[in-house]
From TrEMBL:
GO terms for biological process: RNA repair; tRNA processing. Residues 256-399 form the HD/PDEase domain. GO terms for molecular function: ATP binding; CCA tRNA nucleotidyltransferase activity; metal ion binding; RNA binding. Its cofactor is Mg(2+). It holds the Pfam family HD. This is CCA tRNA nucleotidyltransferase. Signal peptide: none annotated.
Amino acid sequence: MLNMAEGIARLAALAESPVVATVAAVFADAGFELAIVGGPVRDALLGRPTHDLDFTTDARPDDILRIVTPISTAHWDIGRAFGTIGARVAGEQVEITTFRADSYDGTTRKPTVEFGDTLDGDLARRDFTVNAMALRVPGRTLVDPTGGVEDLVRGILRTPVDPRVSFGDDPLRMLRAARFSSQLGFAVEADTLAAIEQLRATIEIVSPERIQAELVRLLQTDDPVRGIRILVETGLVDEFLPEIPALRLEVDEHHHHKDVYEHSLTVLRQAIDLEHERHPDAGPDVALRIAALLHDIGKPATRKLEPGGGVTFHHHDVKGSRLARKRLQALRFDSGTIGSVAQLIEQHLRFFGYAEGAWTDSAVRRYVRDAGPELERLHILTRADVTTRNKRKATRLRAAYDDIERRIAELAAQEELDSMRPELDGNRIQEILGLTPGREVGEAYRFLMDIRLDEGIVGEDEAERRLRAWWAART
């Protein structure tokens, strides 16, 4: 529960920090207004860590740059067209933005930039009341024209003006509602939810890059499931990631299978728990979380109802990998993330054959080789994919995966699996067989790699003997 006395004390401490005091003094000396705005004010009141500082001012960008240059060790004006100047002051990064009144014109994918004249006007055009509070500095006056403090106390997300007007100004705010709900643990107010449902198609005018960036921020929260439910229930996610609501497969009275949508949300939640457990000091693994959420998106397209009430999803892993790749490309994800997610989805079923019977060392080596750098993520995803309520089955699967990880570790210690290669490289193959670079060298390399995977290290002499025998049998 919000303790206002403690929150005000934290705001006072923020205002007294060296960076704020320094920036506030030079703007006051220059005759301009200055206020800390948005997230830092909200987080100070909530007792959450504050990160980069955002300021707003009546100064125009050229004036901002002139004022901060003498007190900064670095500055950048990449956002000047949008009224924003960045700087490093007293060792911290700050952004200072002219009062804004942006809006979309309803047709282009970028907002029109309009500078405002008052702090209250700037705050009224922000996304949510809890982000529409400011602390004037150096005077330390809390400015809250839209009831943000009350909404912090209630744990509510509400737009400062009619949500239809707010979302018309910037449709991305609909997606931000889901993200802030997850980030803060707040509920979205009913009229705001209704407006998202009504205006969801307008997200089309927002660029894929902005949608992707907001989706990533949602997935980086500790509880993205809360926000994903909002996206699905309002229909907003249908506009840019329809594979998620498609997981809500109909189940008739004759054919039964698990709820794929709820299963996927559970897998995402369990993957995050395992991520924290196994790598407590690491940041959120976005590629892993996307793979967990989308790992079964191939099921709707591959579902087959069998006689007697059975349901199959043959090759949904391969189908899902292709669907994920295509969707993430449309959202302008980088190639590394796309490749990782597609590979994890395609390989997420591989382990379950191990649970039916222990693999040979060769099979374990192939599992490691095929996973490559995604092995640790595959460990987490596969473990998270166990959502059965059958405790005996869950225990058996957990023990099986404990066993495969143990065997991987033992083999890695013996054979350096992470850098597994044949015992003869391409140059040596060419030397032995009298070849020049080409297809036949690649075939020989793969032959030796199969020996390495099936039998482990056999020694260079034995590898050469077998290579010569293999080559003689071909010619």
